[in-house]
Design goal:
The structure is a homodimer. The first copy, chain A, is α/β, with parallel strands linked by helices. Chain A has two domains: 174 residues, 3-Layer(aba) Sandwich (Rossmann fold); 136 residues, 2-Layer Sandwich (Hypothetical Protein Tm841, Chain: A,domain 3). Chain A is built from eight helices and 14 strands. Chain A has a six-stranded mixed β-sheet, with helices on both faces. In chain A, helix 2 packs across helix 3 and helix 4 runs antiparallel to helix 5. Chain A is globular and about 55 Å long. The first copy, chain A, starts with 10 loop residues before the first helix and ends with a strand. In chain A, 63% of the residues are buried. The interface between A and B is large, with 65 and 65 residues. Chains A, B: One of its GO terms (biological process) is glycerol catabolic process.
């Protein structure tokens, strides 16, 4: 499989340099690490908000660095957790004295390394709090997790927590709104094709020309059900009903939705999915407060999508709609 | 090849409905057409700026509808020009009495249909002006054009013309800045894979596992040179040097760059390309004023990228950096 890369061993390093070269006024790289932080970090008087995880999910997480979202983003190797040492450096670099919220996707390596890093910085006097995002409704436990996986709903956590921190709220309050998103969000994904990692150079699972996978994760792990290819409306219905079953919302509830591309999916197809998604939500008596369509959390070059639904009250609407200025998401 | 679509005949219609469902406060669809306009069109006291072309290039053009960019975007069928009738309806719908700039990518069908539409609206008293974008440095004439093709540089034309119109400038001035971008921009693209159209369901050209195409267009037409796969740095150098040869810039010139994904390319790879691009520009003594990295003008699910360089003086910097609020591009 062909890729626009040089040596696979250098891909994360070169990607991070390419990000800094694109946004030199917005982000900087902590030397000798794979950590990017806001150029102006630590931002005085503000709780820091950080995240991190394996590479291959771009723009997650570094694309969300900036005003109103993240202060730090740690990149591991492809589909591999960042080390505790690098996470520690990141947290220390963004702490202005107000403490730091760690936004962790629920994967065993991420959870363990963030926990270790948190303990290390606490010994140096930095206050930390943590939320673990587990929005994937497809599986109860998975190859890499006990409990549900953290996937695209994480972006809404970044947005809400980042907006609350920008308001000057304290660490408890920032953690509270982040947890509120976690408690109200669900996601399910599907794949038309497997992704191909730079190192391996071939698909991480085999999928026939007429097959799709429902309930995929974001690390090239296969899904929970393989079926014959269906049309976009039927696929959208499968994903949406799975998420709504899990959330169990009342009629009239306002929601934010995300149709997320997995990296190799044309926008044309994402909008076809969004059309059906919004129709289904209407059938359920739900009201879409905001709809996002695009590549927010990808899995390298995988073709497919995920659907995220998050119930939003007045507070979450205000936070999700608040200004943000990051490479991947700008809200005026 | 698998796609997230329903009936291929419905894909453009359903995509447009999906866009309106995503952005109901921002865009609306003219009834019985494939034209989207700003929800608040015509915007009083402002020159209208419109574009259009075949579908399959999303977010081009409808993704750029909104404050500071486009007032109208006409979508043809996949890789097919919009009809003159629909273009006429679009221009009429966005004219507030100040006239309308037509931004046309140089393809024979687009040029002909925009010209016909322009003549039709002029008979009804709408003043129009036109720019034809021809930034592709790969070919002098092509399958679908006499003269060079219009590709990703078009987005910079949308941005500059839209910003000038938002300032309240008259039609001549809006056309002047649009033409200034056209006169200062060059683009060259490459493909790792062909795209697959919904109708045909198979690649529009065959490319071996170890081959790439340099100088591709955005309609699935093959490029000007087929070569063995190279690493990302070598590919970036081929594209960049071709563009710089064409532009022939003086040392110290400030530029805006775009590393544009063709639809199936992970962001990781685009940033790897951007790293090398910025290094090469530095070697040439050029100064990057702004760097864009992402999917701006795609070719369905094609894997590959294009590189755009545009020389920018103070005036273009002000216009390209001015506020914009569209689904695909927001500038604060």
């Amino acid at each position: 499989m062909k890729k626009l890369i040089n040596d696979p061993d250098d891909v994360v390093d070169e990607m991070l340099d390419g990000m800094v070269a694109a946004y030199p006024d917005r982000v900087r790289r902590l030397s000798d690490t794979n950590v990017l932080v806001r150029e102006d970090a630590p931002v005085g008087g503000k709780v820091g908000v950080v995240s991190g995880g394996g590479s291959g999910h771009e723009p997650t997480h570094a694309g969300y660095l900036g005003e109103g979202m993240l202060d730090g983003a740690a990149a591991g190797e492809v589909f591999t957790s960042p080390t505790a040492d690098e996470l520690e450096e990141m947290v220390a670099a963004v702490d202005s004295g107000e403490g730091v919220l760690l936004v962790v996707k629920n994967y065993e390596g991420d959870v363990m390394n963030f926990e270790t890093a948190g303990e290390m910085v606490e010994m140096e006097g930095t206050e930390v709090a943590e939320v673990v995002v587990n929005d994937d409704v497809a599986v109860e436990d998975s190859l890499y997790t006990s409990g549900r996986r953290g996937v695209c709903g994480t972006i809404l956590v970044h947005k809400a927590a980042g907006a609350k921190a920008a308001e000057g709220a304290d660490l408890d309050e920032v953690q509270r709104v982040a947890q509120k998103v976690v408690d109200n969000v669900g996601t399910m994904g599907m794949a038309l094709t497997s992704c191909v990692t730079p190192e391996k150079g071939e698909p991480t699972f085999d999928l026939g020309e007429d097959e799709i996978e429902l309930g995929i994760g974001i690390h090239g792990e296969p899904g929970v059900e393989r079926t014959d290819i269906m049309d976009a409306d039927a696929i959208t219905e499968e994903l949406t009903e799975s998420v709504l079953d899990d959330l169990d919302l009342d009629e009239g509830q306002e929601v934010v939705t995300i149709v997320n591309g997995m990296g190799g999916t044309p926008q044309m197809e994402l909008f076809v999915v969004n059309r059906k998604l919004q129709e289904l939500l209407g059938d359920h008596g739900l009201e879409t407060w905001d709809a996002w369509v695009g590549d927010y959390m990808t899995s390298l070059d995988m073709a497919g999508c995920s659907i995220t639904v998050c119930a939003v009250d007045d507070e979450l609407q205000e936070l999700l709609g608040a200004p943000a200025d990051t490479p991947a998401l700008t809200v005026r």
